Fold:
Amino acid sequence: MDPAVSTRGRVFGAVRVPSVQIMAYTISVRGLRKRYGGVDAVDGISFDVAAGEFFGILGPNGAGKTTALEIIEGLRRADGGEVSVLGMAPWPRDPRLLPRIGVQLQASSFFERLTAREQLRTFGSLYGVPGRRADAMLESVGLAGKADTRVEELSGGQAQRLSIACALVHDPEVVFLDEPTAALDPQARRNLWDVLRAINTGGRTIVLTTHSMDEAEVLCDRVAIVDAGRVLELGPPATLVRGLDAPTRVSVAAGVLTAAEALSLPGVDEAEEDGVSLTVRTRDPSAVVAALAARGALAGVGIRGATLEDVFLELTGREYRA
Structure:
């Protein structure tokens, strides 16, 4: 049964007749539109997010991700369409909804000269949250050891974790994260992924925008790939990857064999060298690997199937966008 549908029996005389009651998704977006001058920043976006889901919105620069997210959060007014968050419209700003959502923006802004503990307690006080809850949240995002450090002295990863703690301090049901790992080093990114997994495992619904395809593959239950203000594809990352039907890449160390020799192998469709490795594309990787083994040419062999990045590039194009 669809998770958004429940049945409830009704009694007529001695006969119980089942009925179907449609329950709202945690987030429901229908035909969302936003126009700036002659540009349709958001052009009819629609999707649903179930309770407890980790949902990603992916897209190139200027695709409309942040604009759509800010409308759903209630920070911008839509020009058209409908949005429901926890059964309520986010615009105009609804004081009943605000305590139930947490928002982490692209650019974090903190009160100057406050320590991490003071910062979080200040945010919590806006919702009537006791200080002990704020202190516990510092522990949950791994910042207990930085509680007395001023925010301007925190590293980029620590500041991002504090920003997320501020979005969570009042225990919201839905959390919105706009590129939370942008500009972080690999260690900080991985650490923050662990924090986000724990948040989601705790039962919160998370909506994330990101440019990182590996981040989306690791964290998200489903993703919407957006470009030019429209949803191009929507589904679980693994399902989107399987639907691409892309060739497998098999690579070996440079010098093991030439591109011309590789093209003569069974199952090889394309071959290219970059001075470091030779990579072939094939739809029959077992035949290619067997042929390489027969030639003793498995030095540095690597096999890579399609990824969410391949899906993204196939849908949005490969040209650079500033």
User: Anything to note?
Assistant: DSSP finds ten helices and 15 strands in the chain.
